[in-house]
Amino acid sequence: MAKQQQQVYFVFMKFDPDYERLRADRSKEGSARLDAYLSHKHDKLLAKLLQPDSYRKRSSLAIVDGFPVEITEDQASVLRSAKEVRVVEKNQELA
C-alpha cells in the first residue's frame, strides 16, 4: 500500500476561555505567555492524537488559536474528530 503524501492543513480550535483571557493582555509579557500557552496546547493535542514523528507543526497562530501542520488526509480526519478542534482545512495555494 502506498504511503499517503503529507500536505499542509490548518487546524483551528474551538472557543477556549483561557486563550481569550491571555489574548486580552496586550503587554509584551502577555504576548509571550499567550505564545507559550498556545504552543503547548497545540503540541499536546497533536501528541495525544497522532503518532510521534508522523507530522510537523509549523507554528502556532495566536490571532486565531490555530496552527498549520504537515499531515496526511487520514491524520486530518483524526484531528477533525477531536472535541477541541473546530475546523481542519487543507491549505489552498493561490495562483
Automatic annotation (TrEMBL):
It comes from the Eukaryota. This is Inhibitor I9 domain-containing protein. The lineage of its organism: Eukaryota, Viridiplantae, Streptophyta, Embryophyta, Tracheophyta. It comes from Urochloa decumbens.
